Amino acid sequence: MFRDVQTSNRWRSMLLLGVGFLLLVGVGEAVGYYLGLGPFGLVLAVVIAVASTANAYWNSDKIALRITGAHQVDASTHSQLLNVVQEMCLASGLPQPKVAVIEDPAPNAFATGRDPQHATVAVTTGLLERMNREQLQGVLAHELSHVANRDTLVATLAVTIAGTLAIMCDMVWRVSMFGGSTSRRRSNDSGGGQLQLILLAVSVLAIVIAPLAAQLIRAAVSRRREQLADATAVSYTRNPAGLRSALEVLATDSTVVRHTSRATSHLWIESPLDRGASVWNRMFDTHPPLSERIDALREMERTAATP
Amino acid sequence: MRAPYGGTFAGMGVLITVIVLVLLGLVAVWAFNRLVSLRNRTDEAYAQIDVQLKRRYDLIPNLVETVKGYAAHERGTLEAVTSARNAAAGASGVAATAEANNVLSGALGRLFAVAEAYPDLKANATFLNLMEQLTTTENQLGFARQFYNDSVRALNTAIETFPLMLLAGMAKATRREYFQVDDAAVREAPTVQF
Lengths: 307, 194
Fold this sequence. Notes:
Chain A is mostly helical. Chain A is 65% helix and 6% strand.
C-alpha cells in the first residue's frame, strides 16, 4: 500500500516540476517578446539563478550544519542514535551519512546532501528526549528517505525555476522603469496591431503572476515530497505506527526550532515556520498538515496486510 | 533541396535499420547492466546478513553470562539460547541458516521476556548496554534480511520477464532463494523495541 502512495507522490511532484518548467519556458518567451531580447533573456536568467543556487546545492550538507549550529556525533556519546541510523541504512541500502545533533529543546530533524554519498542527518536534543526508540526509528527513516529520493536536488530544481522567473520579471520591471527599448520588435508586420496588443497584455500578466505561481509550485512540490518521504519511510521500517506516533508527539508539542529561515524550512520533518491557517497561507506551506500525514500513515497501518 | 541520406527509398531503409539496430544495442546494454547490478546488490545484501548474524553469535555468550549472574535459576531458558546459538553458528546454506536463526530468535524472545521480571538485572549497566547492542543487532538483522529479500525479489522478477530474461545467462544472473521466516509472528514484527 505504501508503494502506491510512493508512486503517486513521485508522479505528482514530477508533474508539478514539469508544469514549472513549462511556465519558465512560456514566460521566457513572453519576456523575450516584451524586451525584444529573444531567448537571451531566459538564458541569462537561468545562468544567474543556477550560479546562485549551485554552491548551496553542492555544499548543502556542510551549509545546513553551519546554519543550524549542529555538531557531528559518534557512537561514544550517542550510541543508540547511531545504531538506529545504521538500522535504517541497512533497510534502505544507503551509505552511512554524517550524523549530527542540534542543541534545541524543540523536537525536529532534517536531512540534506547533494547525493547519498554526501548526506547529513541531524536531530535536535529535544527530539532525542521526547521520542522512544520506535519513534526515533520512524523519524530517521523519514529523513533517510529524503536522501534516497534526492529531495535536495528536487527542491533545488524548484527553487532554481522560481529564481529564474523572479530574475526575468525583475529584468522586465527594470527595463520598463528606465524606459527601456521595448519597442525593438518586429514591427514590420503591420497587420495585427490588435493581436500585438493582446500578446503584450498577456505577456505582462504572465510576467506579473509567474513568480507567484512559481512559489506555489515550489511549495506544492515540497508537500508532495514530504508525503513521499513518509511512504518511503514505511517501506524501510514496515512499521507505519512508529512514524505515526512520532508525528503525534510533534503535533502536541508547540515549541519551534530557533535557528531556521524560510530558505531551509523544507528540510525539517515538521515545518518550523508558523503560518496562518487560512487557505491562502496553506498553499505556501512546505509541509502538509500533520493531521493529514498522520491520517495517511493510519491508512497504511490499516492496509498493512497487503504492502 | 537534396535530402541528406541520398534521397532514395533504399537509402531511407538503411537509415531506419541502422537506427533500430542502435536502439536495440542500447537496450541490450541497459538490460545487461541492470542484471549485473541486481545480482551484485543481492550478493552484497547477503553479505550484510552474514555480518549481522556473526555479531549476534558473538554477543550472545556475554548476554547469557550477565543474565546468569542475576537469574541463575532460569537455566532452562539460558541453555535453550546457548544451544540454539551454537546450532545457528554451525549451519550452512541459506535455508538451513535461516531456519536455525528463527529458532534462535524464538529463544532470545523468551529470554527477553524472562529478563523483564528481574528489576536488578534491568538496572545493571552492562546488561543495558548488551540489550541495546542485541536490540540493534536483531533490528539490523531484520532489515538486512528485508533488503536481501527485496533484492532477491527484484532479481528473480527481472530474470523471469522480457527482455531481461534474454541476457540472464550472459550476465550470470540466476534465481536466488529468499531468507525465509516461517514463524508468522517474527515475520510481522521483524524488529525489537525496548
